């Protein structure tokens, strides 16, 4: 097993910069989820770790060596794609063992590895079937088995559950988590579904517009979001936000939310703030403010209610069944110990705990990237003219060695490269 170090990584396509200085440290045997909205750069970053995308600047290390110019087949990683990418004319067993056959391993060793992976994933009864004879979940398990047989240092998952139905997603989520607990292989998992990230990952990296907004354990991000974006992205349904002001250490809003006599402010002085309260921290309470019920969603185990409180749309999530109906007037109140306050100008959380990550170096547009708690220095950062030329050509899709990594992920020879060690002499 091996850790993954991502230091000040940038990626540009011509004048478009899609990754703007990303720093992430994935510890040995850790399960890290990269989450964020579409277009945030999470899949691009994963493909750069795999070697399927070039790096404009910065460095990526796997297992203590820099792999910027190491071809995918020599990085000792295995990737599970969003599409299953199974050979339709091959049986399950042949699909799982094909990469080992290309690598020249003996037939008996291939059979042994395939048998072991099939046992782990409960695929033994399906080894002689073709992909068309499998369900979506079974195909995804075969794709995972193809990665397991390679016994890599790092597993890379690129939204592997996106093509499955809701029920199957839940079961596969548990299978992937159980697989990680059994194999203890370092895993980087990309998803746009924050529920997947919360339930599976040891650490979550929240990305937006090519930058890391915050990283930490699932409960750290839930309890202490660094800014409004993270607060709204983590948690389902998303957090309610109410604009107001602080007057004499009391929060005041136009609709009277929280009342005018509740001393809950984390600020020393007066000023405009945005109050955040999660739907599960609101409840029906006769001492609260009036709100009109707009929509009621019953799921059996819980009730979601969409409300209008003085012109502010709010969502309430109750763990019990409610008898309210649309059009009814109710009174709601928050859990005062679970409130969040944000600066309207910057969006940053106010009164946060000292252990919340501080922002990293700003980029040229004033945005910031969150630096990891531990950073491994990969080099001194100096770049010569030849390397600058190579980076400029690569940014527009031209590599000097004419190597196309996406064509050689499973089998190609790739260019001859020499990996260098992190913090040690090159081998």
From TrEMBL:
Q: Which gene encodes it?
A: ugpC
Q: Where is this region: Disordered?
A: 348-390
Known Gene3D superfamilies for this protein? Answer: 2.40.50.100, Nucleic acid-binding proteins (2.40.50.140), P-loop containing nucleotide triphosphate hydrolases (3.40.50.300)
Matching entries from InterPro entries are given as: AAA+_ATPase (IPR003593), ABC_transporter-like_ATP-bd (IPR003439), ABC_transporter-like_CS (IPR017871), ABC_transpr_MalK-like (IPR015855), ABC_transpr_MalK/UgpC-like (IPR047641), Mo/tungstate-bd_C_term_dom (IPR008995), NA-bd_OB-fold (IPR012340), OB_MalK-like (IPR040582)
Top-level taxon of origin:
Bacteria
Picking any one GO molecular function of the record gives:
ATP binding
- Signal sequence, start to end: none
Domain ABC transporter residues, every copy: 4-234
What protein name is recorded for this chain? Sn-glycerol-3-phosphate ABC transporter ATP-binding protein UgpC
Identify its protein family: Belongs to the ABC transporter superfamily.
Record's keyword terms, sorted: ATP-binding, Nucleotide-binding, Transport
CDD domains xref list? ABC_MalK_N
């Amino acid at each position: 097993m091996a850790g993954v170090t991502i230091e000040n990584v940038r990626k540009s396509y011509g004048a478009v910069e899609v990754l703007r200085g990303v720093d992430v440290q994935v510890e040995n045997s850790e399960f890290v989820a990269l989450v964020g909205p579409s277009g945030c750069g999470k899949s691009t970053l994963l493909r750069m770790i795999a070697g399927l995308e070039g790096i404009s600047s910065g460095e990526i290390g796997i297992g203590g060596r820099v792999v910027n110019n190491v071809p995918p087949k020599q990085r000792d990683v295995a990737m599970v794609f969003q599409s299953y990418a199974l050979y339709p004319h091959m049986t399950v067993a042949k699909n799982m063992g094909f990469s080992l056959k290309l690598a020249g391993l003996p037939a008996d060793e291939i059979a042994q590895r395939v048998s072991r992976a099939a046992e782990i994933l409960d695929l033994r009864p399906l080894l002689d079937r073709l992909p068309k004879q499998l369900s979506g979940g079974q195909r995804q398990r075969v794709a995972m088995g193809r990665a397991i047989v390679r016994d890599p240092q790092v597993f890379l998952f690129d939204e592997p559950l996106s093509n499955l139905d809701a029920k199957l997603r839940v079961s596969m989520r548990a299978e992937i988590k159980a697989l990680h607990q059994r194999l203890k292989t370092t895993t980087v998992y990309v998803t746009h579904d924050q529920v997947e990230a919360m339930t599976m990952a040891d650490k979550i990296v929240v990305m937006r517009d090519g930058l890391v907004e915050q990283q930490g354990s699932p409960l750290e991000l839930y309890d202490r979001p660094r800014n409004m974006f993270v607060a709204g992205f983590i948690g389902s349904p998303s957090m309610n936000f109410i604009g107001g002001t602080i007057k004499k250490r009391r929060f005041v809003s136009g609709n009277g939310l929280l009342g005018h006599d509740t001393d809950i402010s984390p600020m020393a002085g007066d000023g405009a703030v945005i109050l955040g309260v999660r739907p599960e921290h609101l409840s029906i309470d006769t001492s609260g403010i009036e709100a009109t019920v707009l929509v009621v969603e019953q799921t059996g185990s819980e009730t979601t209610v969409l409300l209008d409180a003085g012109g502010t749309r709010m969502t309430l999530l109750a763990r019990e069944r409610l008898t309210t109906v649309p059009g009814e007037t109710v009174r709601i109140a928050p859990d005062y110990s679970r409130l969040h306050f944000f600066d309207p100008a910057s969006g940053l959380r106010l009164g946060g705990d000292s252990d919340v990550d501080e922002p990293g170096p700003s980029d040229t547009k004033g945005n910031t990237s969150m630096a990891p708690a531990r950073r491994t220095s990969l080099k001194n950062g100096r770049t010569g003219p030849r390397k600058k030329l190579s980076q400029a050509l690569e940014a527009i899709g031209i590599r000097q060695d004419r190597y196309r990594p996406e064509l050689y992920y499973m089998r190609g020879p790739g260019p001859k490269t020499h990996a260098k060690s992190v913090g040690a002499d090159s081998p």
